[in-house]
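Handout, tutorial session.
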Amino acid sequence: TVLEAAGGLRRTHGGARIITPKSDEFAFSARDTHQLDQKEAIGRACAQLIGSNQSVIIDAGTTVYHVAKYLEDKSPQIVTNSLPVANLYSAAGRVELVLSGGVIYPRLGVLVGPLAVEAFSKIHADVAVMSAGGITLEGLTNSHGLLIEIQLAMMRAAAKVIFCLDHTKFGRRSVSQLCDLGQIHIIVTDS
């Protein structure tokens, strides 16, 4: 009761929940509020690199979601494991949307697991637009092992690989190694 009155937690039946978790690295909605202006600018700039009627793999990152917002006029075919991207285009007439199968991981808003990986192993796309948790001279990293296998399948399926990373990702390492710098074609970032 004292902790709830102080605003640190919310009591539940038989327990309590922290109101502000120590890290929101995994929550899509919370992450999408960070560096919002930069993500919008990166989204617009990256969308300019996508040609009309191209097939585009979109991963589940929040920065990449902002790229997806600027693609409808290009009438792309989008293949994604991102529930927010799928929701964005669920009623769009100019976009053909292919959603991978898999198990829903709700905090990330993403489909993961063997079905998701298999879906990307059976397609070919003109370009993959992706994000990562960090980038150093040793390569790109991401925060969750479940994402790595899917992202690697996405990269193998695409003729061109673009990573969208805001300035906070540079010099940062996440838990799992994704790839080295030689495996990507373009990085889109803010100033």
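The second record follows below. Compare its token runs with those of the first.
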Amino acid sequence: LPNVVAGGGKVYNSKNEVLFIYRNDKWDLPKGKAERKETIEETAIREVEEETGVSGLQITKSLPTTYHIFKRNGKHKIKVTYWFEMKTEFTGELFPQENEGITKVAWLDNKATQEALDNSYANIRILV
């Protein structure tokens, strides 16, 4: 199957909260497809910024890579997502990227994160 390469982030703020997006009635971590001549780290940072409005991101370490099969235009593909733990001191307003189907962006504390994982994807539970 053809591969789609993506990068994403598990982002912590200064309160140790994790940045989540809400899309397709599920909580998820921000991620997206790599663009030409972009490192996977650059992809991850750009996608988090675009999907959430958060800036000042700094990668602190690599996280496990995830894989899932999806269907687009009648064809199956494998999405390979390279994940990075990030931190930021950002305290501004969050902006969901609505044209990507994101309806909410939120910083979730430990309790709220555990609740969000009940309505998330198995690959996200692995990362959190």
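Points raised in discussion: Residues 8 and 102 are 15 Å apart (CA to CA).
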